[in-house]
Design a protein that fits this description.
The chain is mostly helical and 206 residues long. Helices cover 69% and strands 5% of the residues. It has two domains: 68 residues, no CATH class; 137 residues, no CATH class.
């Protein structure tokens, strides 16, 4: 097994088991300490043959696909609240507010709105930017929508409420939450750039 393949299967194996253990902890079936011990034991005792076999299974493929490609091919608005529950099941809105507090996030949202929303309120955006460094600054999806007339986020109230986002924006949120996802995106982009450069060099040499 080459190093790249080894890294891929180890990553897939660990992500799958970590997600299962996280769910057991959230359901209070086991403690976090017990979950950490189980994961350490799995890593210590695993061998490449078992990992490869597991990573070819339908269960593993479904887990990895749900983790990596949850919003890429979607055309419908995606629940950021559901995504945030993987980080904080008790208070997913806190995760969303942390994402919205970032200057990079609201600049990304502004760029998306300017491209897709002719009624975007730039003055409302500028007002929010002037407040962002204040210690008391808190930005919710509802406040963003109200002040900027944004269409990329939807805020629903009630028992079945939550924050929904256009797939482009939901993908940014997913990358922000997951270092693994960010790493995968960077690798894929760089790989495509290198492939394009190699094609150009080959065409020029011919």
């Amino acid at each position: 097994m080459d190093e790249q393949r080894r890294a891929e299967v180890l990553w897939a194996y660990s992500i799958t088991h970590e997600r299962i253990l996280e769910r057991l902890v959230k359901k209070e079936r086991i403690s976090q300490e017990r979950a950490d011990a189980i994961l350490d034991m799995l890593i210590d005792t695993m061998n490449e043959k078992e990992i490869e076999k597991h990573c070819r299974s339908k269960v593993c493929k479904k887990e990895i696909e749900s983790f990596l490609h949850l919003v890429i091919d979607s055309e419908d608005f995606v629940s950021l609240t559901d995504l945030a529950r993987t980080e904080n099941n008790e208070n997913p809105s806190y995760v969303i507010q942390s994402w919205l507090r970032s200057r990079n996030t609201i600049e990304f949202l502004r760029l998306w709105e300017k491209e897709n929303n002719p009624d975007f309120n730039e003055d409302g955006y500028n007002h929010l930017v002037r407040q962002i460094n204040l210690p008391s600054f808190t930005l919710t999806a509802k406040k963003w929508i109200t002040q900027t007339n944004a269409i990329g986020l939807i805020s629903k109230q009630g028992n079945n409420g939550g924050t929904l986002a256009h797939p482009d924006i939901a993908f940014d949120f997913q990358v922000w939450m997951s270092p693994e996802k960010r790493y995968e995106v960077v690798n894929k982009v760089l790989r495509e750039i290198r492939l394009d450069k190699n094609r150009e060099l080959m065409e020029k040499s011919n």
